Structure to design on (213 residues):
């Protein structure tokens, strides 16, 4: 079900969480790589999200390159290769102390900039992980990197950069649909992309602490 603006729609704080401009200015980060720490749903739910994305892309004649990966971005930053080994150790230590948890995707929302997303019902576990990343953030910045995003309102972006008319038509169509799925999050992925690459690739998987129950 689509939650309409003025009637409960979650509107993103774009100054805090939108970083589309950073991706367009690699010249500002010469010699740095782009990293993302991402939570991915299981294959079944990923397939449903991809089907939803393909429907949007097909209706608007968009190419696959315009389709975001169906994951929840926890942290995004630019950093040097030289800190990668230490970075992995620090993030793994944080994740190993945080229990795995259930994630519920509930309803479709949108931001004023034309981003369409699936809302995460309970953001608290993601916010807790993010709050423990302060030392990692200091490492990135002190070594000449830059943090561009830390999660506050977790979401899975299903579409962005749609022209205004296509955006409103898509929202009208999505208002007739519902989306409600849950999955158990047991790991986070570290993804990496250099200035010469067009797609992220996996660097490491961080396991969360297994739930004793």
């Amino acid at each position: 079900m689509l939650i309409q603006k003025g009637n409960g729609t979650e509107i993103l704080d774009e100054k805090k969480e939108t970083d589309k401009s950073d991706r367009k200015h690699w010249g500002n980060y010469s010699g740095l790589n782009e990293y993302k720490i991402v939570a991915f749903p299981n294959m079944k739910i990923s397939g449903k999200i991809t089907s939803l994305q393909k429907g949007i892309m097909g209706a608007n004649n968009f190419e696959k390159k315009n389709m975001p990966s169906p994951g929840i971005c926890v942290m995004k930053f630019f950093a040097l290769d030289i800190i990668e080994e230490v970075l992995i150790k620090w993030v793994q230590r944080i994740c190993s102390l945080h229990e795995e948890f259930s994630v519920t995707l509930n309803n479709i929302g949108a931001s004023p900039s034309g981003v369409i997303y699936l809302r995460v019902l309970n953001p608290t576990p993601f916010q807790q992980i993010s709050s423990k990343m302060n030392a990692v953030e200091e490492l990135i910045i002190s070594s000449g990197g830059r943090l561009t995003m830390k999660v506050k309102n977790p979401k899975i972006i299903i579409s962005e950069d749609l022209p205004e008319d296509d955006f409103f038509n898509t929202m009208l169509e999505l208002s007739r649909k519902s989306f409600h799925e849950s999955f158990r999050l047991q790991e986070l992925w570290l993804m990496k992309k250099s200035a010469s690459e067009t797609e992220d690739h996996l660097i490491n998987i961080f396991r969360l602490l297994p739930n004793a129950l």
Remarks:
- The first strand starts at residue 33 and ends at 39.
